[in-house]
Design brief:
- The complex is a heterodimer of chains A (307) and B (281).
- Chain A is α/β, with parallel strands linked by helices.
- Chain A has 8 helices and 11 strands.
- Chain A has helices at residues 69-77, 110-118, 130-142, 158-170, 188-205, 239-242, 245-252, 277-288, and strands at 31-40, 43-53, 58-62, 84-89, 93-96, 176-180, 208-213, 225-230, 233-237, 256-261, 264-269.
- In chain A, the strands form 3 sheets. Chain A has a 6-stranded mixed beta sheet with strand order 5-6-7-3-8-9, with helices on both faces.
- In chain A, β6 (176-180), α5 and β7 (208-213) form a beta-alpha-beta unit.
- Chain B is an all-alpha fold and 281 residues long.
- Helices cover 81% and strands 0% of the residues of chain B.
- Chain B is globular, with a radius of gyration of 20 Å.
- The chains are: A alpha/beta (307), B mainly alpha (281).
- Chain A binds chain B through residues 77, 79, 93, 95, 97-102, 105-109, 112-113, 116, 119-126, 147, 150-153, 157-160, 165, 168, 185-187, 190, and chain B through 29, 141-146, 148-149, 152-153, 155-162, 202-204, 206-209, 211-212, 270, 274, 277, 279-281.
- The structure holds adenosine-5'-triphosphate and magnesium ion.
């Protein structure tokens, strides 16, 4: 397979080349990843991944199951050893992990969980104070969860818990906020709420937000940049630069097509349809209607899948 | 009942109960009830060994509790430690049965080590008991936030300055100390009921961590006092009363939680709203 960065001709938004395409950022990036390679027992999960996230920007980390999104976020957090490359991240970093199971019996209110974010995980007992309480209230307010403050976290709905976890992650005023699949398990309304919330956090607090998702569509309207993972490699840049048939085909190493319809994006493999593939996929998608079809992000080699 | 050597038991029993209630808060929160069961059983082997060679049981209990803690902490992987805990439990129990068989003259002592005795605390043990209790409380206070966050969701604690494995070691150490203090009074078989019944009830009754932790210690104290008094009066083992009371607390806690949930569901506007909306996930 041809390494994506060495493909002939200028390709917008691909690999390490993408940084040079944009005007130099006025502010230094909150996160810059260069040539990141991660090997886990058995295989190379990430290979030569490069991108950066500027303060105030919302970046989507897109990839199918097993593409390496969680691995990449863990590498940024310093929890994952690197085989090669460099990660420079401004601290503190806020982190919302992918799987957080909260027991309904936990004697912990939403307010307590946010408070635990406030002091980090410092040693010693937390002393209640008026300032501390005000800060927790402010954080809960910033995620529109003031009414949930006194409820046990485990009894809240998935979307409500997601907001509390975001408030927890924001407590230490992070420069960089990492969220692993924050939209999984959320319905349409909750998804829109959380996306709007994250976009607002990025803009008003100047936080660099990097969130992973397997579905690019909920982010299309708010995303400043995208990092698209497939086969261990990444393409990065603005959505328009990256989400293109030729760019993603180069990334996947075989022909895929990108269909845009009703303001949504479908990425589909087309090998079974040959040259007409994209039209066939577009027709099929049109027939199914924009609300019932979600973007299908095929794994490399997974040629049979389409919507 | 409150005179002479019984004063030692009241004092020592109060320290061990408060410590067991505080440690138990995290035992229940972290779902570490199996470790809280296994460490006392392993420590019993140490007590039996101490009786065999004529050393103070506190020393034997403490040594074996530490041994168990170290083995569990060292060999557990990725937070899953049930298999290691079981292996530590069976190997220490095996050693304990050997010690017991070698010291047939100490049958009475073995009985009270297993089931507890209201006369277990001597005046010479009061100072070490208080010191160990203070150490345990200090340890829990220092680790309170990392332990709490790690108990709520381990994934949230991994970025903190205290690695979850180190917090777990501190926690197991606290379980070992609480065991050492409580075992002579409550008995090896039922020490862990004091670390489970009161905190399990407390977390149903109190919705915030500090309150639940305090309530757990208070319920454990009441349990221990009632059990010591009842044992003194009836001559039945302390462990019997501790075990029974712990179960009663738990059932009462569950009943209260169920009742209050129903009461809230029938009046609370938020509850009604939630019922109407359903759970999102
Ligand atoms: N500890 C590990 N040891 C070996 N392989 C691992 C380990 N952790 C992850 N992997 C492998 O690395 C690949 C990427 O995993 P990762 O969890 O980063 O994917 P992901 O993009 O987050 O997927 P998902 O959308 O399912 O969460 C997977 O193929 C997985 O099997
Ligand atoms: Mg993942």
């Amino acid at each position: 397979m041809v390494p994506i960065t060495s493909l002939p001709g200028p390709r917008p938004g691909l690999g390490a080349g993408s940084a040079g395409l944009r005007a130099p950022e006025l502010s230094e990036p909150a996160l810059s990843v260069e040539g990141l390679t991660v090997r886990l027992p058995g295989r190379e999960v990430l290979r030569d991944v490069s991108f950066s996230v500027a303060p105030g920007e919302l970046t989507g980390l897109i990839g199918s199951n097993g593409a390496g999104k969680t691995t990449l976020l863990r590498a940024v957090l310093g929890l994952q050893g690197l085989a090669a490359g460099r990660v420079a991240a401004k601290r503190p970093i806020g982190y919302v992990p992918q799987k957080v199971l909260l027991d309904p019996d936990l004697p912990v209110r939403a307010r307590d969980l946010v408070g635990l974010g406030l002091e980090g995980t410092r040693l010693g007992l937390p002393w209640p104070s008026r300032a501390r309480r005000a800060r927790v209230d402010e954080l809960l307010g910033s995620v529109e969860a003031s009414s949930l403050a006194e409820a046990r976290v485990g009894t809240l709905s998935g979307g409500e818990q997601q907001k509390i976890l975001i408030a927890h992650a924001l407590a230490r005023r992070p420069k960089l906020l990492l969220l692993d699949e924050p939209l999984a398990n959320l319905d349409l309304k909750a998804t829109q709420e959380v996306v709007a919330l994250l976009s607002r956090i990025a803009k008003t607090h100047g936080v660099a937000v990097l969130l992973s998702t397997h579905d690019i569509n909920p982010l299309l309207a708010v995303m400043d940049r995208v990092v698209y993972l497939a086969g261990g490699r990444a393409a990065s840049g603005t959505t328009d630069e990256v989400v293109q048939t030729d760019v993603l085909s180069a990334l996947y190493g075989h022909h895929v097509c990108v269909v845009r319809l009703h303001g949504r994006v479908l990425v589909s493999t087309t090998d079974e349809h040959g040259e007409q593939g994209c039209d066939v996929a577009a027709d099929a998608w049109e027939g199914a209607g924009p609300t019932t079809v979600r973007a299908v992000v095929p794994a490399p080699g997974d040629e049979g899948s389409s919507s | 009942m409150f005179s002479g050597f019984m004063v030692n038991t009241w004092l020592g029993g109060s320290v061990m109960a408060a410590v067991a209630g505080l440690v138990g808060f995290f035992v229940v929160l972290r779902g570490s009830t199996f470790a809280a069961h296994a460490i006392p059983q392993g420590a019993f082997a140490g007590a039996a060994g101490a009786a065999l060679i004529g050393v103070n049981t506190l020393v034997g209990t403490g040594t074996f509790a530490l041994l168990g803690v170290a083995a569990i902490a060292l060999w557990s992987r990725h937070g899953r430690n049930d298999v290691v805990t079981a292996l530590v439990l069976v190997s220490l129990l095996g050693v304990g049965s050997l010690f017991l068989s070698l010291s047939t003259e100490y049958a009475q002592q073995a009985f009270s080590l297993l089931f507890g005795s209201p006369l277990a605390v001597s005046s010479s043990e009061l100072v070490p008991t208080a010191a160990l209790g203070a150490f345990c409380v200090a340890l829990l206070a220092a680790l309170y936030r990392p332990l709490l966050l790690g108990s709520v969701a381990p994934e949230l604690a991994i970025t903190g300055p205290v690695p979850p494995a180190r917090a777990e070691l501190g926690f197991l150490l606290a379980v070992g100390v609480a065991t050492t203090l409580a075992l002579p009074v409550v008995g090896a078989l039922l020490v862990f009921s004091l670390m489970i019944g009161p905190p399990a009830a407390a977390r149903q009754l109190a919705g915030r961590p500090s309150l639940a932790m305090g309530l757990s210690a208070a319920l454990a104290l009441v349990t221990a006092w009632v059990a010591i008094a009842a044992s003194y009066e009836t001559n039945w083992p302390v462990g019997f009363f501790v075990g029974t009371f712990s179960a009663v607390w738990y059932v009462a806690g569950r009943a209260w939680a169920a009742w209050s949930r129903r009461a809230r569901a029938s009046v609370g506007p938020r509850a009604r709203q939630k019922l109407a909306l359903g759970r999102a996930s």
